[in-house]
UniProtKB/TrEMBL annotation, chains A, B:
Role: May play a role in DNA repair. It seems to be involved in an RecBC-independent recombinational process of DNA repair. It may act with RecF and RecO.
The organism's taxonomic lineage, starting at the top: Bacteria, Bacillati, Bacillota, Bacilli, Lactobacillales
Chain ranges of the Toprim domain: 80-176
Gene3D superfamilies, alphabetized: 3.30.60.80, 3.40.1360.10, 6.10.250.240, RecR Domain 1
InterPro entries on file: DNA_Rcmb_RecR (IPR000093), Rcmb_RecR (IPR023627), Rcmb_RecR_Znf (IPR015967), TOPRIM_dom (IPR006171), TOPRIM_RecR (IPR034137)
Any single GO BP term: DNA recombination
Keywords from the named record: DNA damage, DNA recombination, DNA repair, Metal-binding, Zinc, Zinc-finger
Protein name per Swiss-Prot or TrEMBL: Recombination protein RecR
KW RNA-binding (keyword) present: no
HAMAP family on file: RecR
SMART domains tied to this protein: TOPRIM
Example GO molecular function: DNA binding
Annotated source species: Lacticaseibacillus nasuensis JCM 17158
Length: 199, 199
């Protein structure tokens, strides 16, 4: 006996999502059948809308349903600073702190020779063009992840941008707020000591 | 800054699924945007199809896109045995063993006074009708879960069906195949000793 076709297809679809195996997909599919019809229809519609109505901002590369995006259009933001992130969702993470009021630029990845990803595969050319076109930018903050690839990408960008007389900075490394020294790894502790601040 | 509306709606939809919080929902939503358009469209279609094309079999209560379901229509199956399960997905779990060739009946839940679920909320009346209409049934196997509610439901069904002269059996309790005695709980070990078989 096989599952009826509609449910087998739905299980297949759920399995295409990251981190969802056949057991979870089956559970989600049966759950879906018991959901309210309204909710399922809205879910289907939002999937299609997210795929078809969203695209990348032609200036910063962030995900948007308008072009340029809300942030690039906002003349109230500090036009002198650009914060560079790996992924669109990082923009939201930084913006949620409420402390940064400049512009963003999304690379859509990091340099990774192992995966065959070089500078041309990232959204770097448009960043350089932006800096050349806009003389008001005085600082580029590189907020790539604290991974080896993120560090290498930050170094690469720094070497590329600094000669133009623009300040290039990197997010601080150190202990996470609320974390125990006991559980911090050696590299993090090393960076935390190096970057100590005066009280 | 807020997420663009299409992505905010998709995150909301993912969060309606069981076990998916806002972080996972956000990750899935961004993943969806990078999926192939074909796959997203197929996903949306399969959601709608699963909700609208599937219903419960009027005989056994299993999920089906036909009525009666594939199993109830199959005259090659042993018409003398009915195996009673809690949920439609349990039918597939049992059938996959390939060792049971009788019919099924899906209760859609178990008796649970705490949740206010009594016999009338389960698919029990139709089981009794089935047994009355079909004199060939000589055994009902109760395959509810090995939980207190599952046991209580099994006892209830047994008291209801036995007076009609039909044999009522329950799945065996014991050690899971491949498991260590060291990690088995006391109740399971007790049942395993009680139900020991001769070699």
């Amino acid at each position: 006996m096989q599952y009826p076709e509609p449910i087998a297809k739905l299980i297949d679809s759920y399995m295409k999502l990251p981190g969802i195996g056949s057991k979870t997909a089956t559970r989600l599919a049966f759950y879906t059948i018991d959901m309210r019809t309204d909710d399922v229809d809205a879910f289907a519609k939002s999937l299609v809308a997210a795929k078809h109505d969203l695209h990348y901002c032609s200036i910063c590369g962030n995900i948007t349903d308008d072009d340029p995006c809300e942030i690039c259009r906002d003349s109230g933001r500090d036009q002198g600073t650009i914060l560079v992130v790996e992924q669109p969702k990082d923009v939201m993470s930084i913006d949620r702190t409420g402390d940064y009021h400049g512009l963003y630029h999304v690379l859509h990845g990091v340099l990774s020779p192992i995966d065959g990803r070089g500078p041309d595969d990232l959204n770097i050319a448009s960043l350089i063009k932006r800096l050349q076109a806009n003389a008001t930018v005085h600082e580029v903050i590189v907020a790539t992840n604290a991974t080896p690839e993120g560090e290498a990408t930050a170094q690469y960008l720094s070497r590329l941008i600094k000669p133009a007389g623009i300040k290039v900075t990197r997010l601080a490394h150190g202990l996470a707020v609320g974390s125990d020294i006991e559980y911090a790894d050696e590299m993090t502790l090393l960076k935390a000591v190096e970057g100590r601040t005066e009280l």
